[in-house]
């Protein structure tokens, strides 16, 4: 039996969504996730997103990077599945239960509260995460923030002048980051505006990163560069981030369904539910 998928994106950060909220999905592991995400031999996406029933929320969202790693959070995908759900939703993730709701033509997501402790990022050893005493060439003194997943944010004079394709993977895989790291280069251009480019852990350069926008906005606020409501402009478009007085991060932005299709699970080492395992 063929498996249906929905192709979606948030500002060009694209996803293959397998909707298992009402019918069981085949077992997905790192190998099959990477095969489905492959842009040449698979369907192709920045992240594979599985929806499953949940005992603690409206549904559970699992997120796999194209390298097969399963991760705790994905801001753009959360808006996409919020659009798919069509109404306000509480969503169980590896980082806890978050919520989405339609908002002004887009989707607003309450992403949880940021964490700043060196062991919460996590880092391999104790260090000031506000201005880390480390550097990779011109990228130095990052601020580290965990918004469900780990981020390092470098504030630079010109984001376009950074060779992120070369420095991104070097930083992502540095032994300082035991769970690797998402790498953000940003410029605060006004009290309510940030420019951002992201090298994503397990995915590489993407057109937008929702958790990167959240982490970068929080980092800029903690550094006193911006106020508590900012517009973050990424290559794929803009997201609105607010750090609410109660500590919750609220991200608002668009989500789009591109097309629907189906695939033969056997071609990806999967067996549709109920068939021979
Ligand atoms: N690559 C990220 C997951 C996807 C985050 C990004 N697509 C977003 O919209 O938040 C990580 O490994 O933490």
UniProtKB/TrEMBL annotation:
Belongs to the diaminopimelate epimerase family. InterPro entries: DAP_epimerase_AS, DAP_epimerase_DapF. It comes from Novosphingobium kalidii. Pfam families: DAP_epimerase. Its EC number is 5.1.1.7. This is Diaminopimelate epimerase. The active site is at residues 74, 209. The gene is dapF. Coiled coil: none annotated. Pathway: Amino-acid biosynthesis; L-lysine biosynthesis via DAP pathway; DL-2,6-diaminopimelate from LL-2,6-diaminopimelate: step 1/1. Keywords: Amino-acid biosynthesis, Cytoplasm, Isomerase, Lysine biosynthesis. Substrate binds at residues 13, 47, 65, 75-76, 149, 182, 200-201, 210-211. It catalyses: (2S,6S)-2,6-diaminopimelate = meso-2,6-diaminopimelate. Homodimer. It is found in: Cytoplasm.
């Amino acid at each position: 039996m063929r498996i249906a998928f929905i192709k979606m994106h948030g500002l060009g950060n694209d996803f293959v969504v397998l909707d298992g909220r009402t019918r069981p999905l085949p077992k997905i592991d790192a190998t099959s996730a990477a095969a489905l995400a492959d842009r040449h031999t698979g369907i192709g996406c920045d992240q594979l997103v599985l929806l499953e029933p949940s005992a603690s929320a409206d549904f559970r969202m699992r997120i796999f990077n194209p390298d097969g790693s399963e991760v705790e959070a994905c801001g753009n995908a959360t808006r996409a599945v919020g659009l798919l759900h069509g109404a306000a939703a509480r969503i169980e993730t590896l980082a806890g239960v978050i919520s989405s709701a339609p908002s002004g033509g887009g989707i607003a997501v309450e992403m949880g509260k940021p964490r700043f402790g060196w062991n919460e990022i996590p880092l391999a050893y104790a260090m000031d995460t506000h201005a880390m005493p480390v550097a990779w060439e011109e990228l130095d003194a990052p601020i580290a923030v965990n918004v469900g997943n780990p981020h390092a944010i470098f504030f630079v004079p010109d984001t376009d002048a950074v060779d992120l394709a070369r420095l991104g993977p070097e930083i992502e895989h540095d032994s300082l980051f035991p769970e690797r790291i998402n790498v953000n280069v940003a410029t605060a251009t006004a009290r309510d505006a940030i420019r951002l480019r992201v090298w994503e852990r397990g995915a590489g350069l993407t057109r937008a990163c929702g958790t990167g926008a959240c982490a970068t906005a929080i980092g800029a606020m903690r550094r006193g560069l911006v106020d508590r409501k900012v517009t973050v402009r990424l290559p794929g478009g803009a997201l609105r981030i607010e750090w609410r007085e109660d500590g919750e991060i609220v991200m608002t932005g668009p989500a789009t369904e591109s097309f629907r299709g189906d695939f033969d699970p056997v071609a990806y080492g999967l067996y549709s539910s109920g068939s021979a395992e």
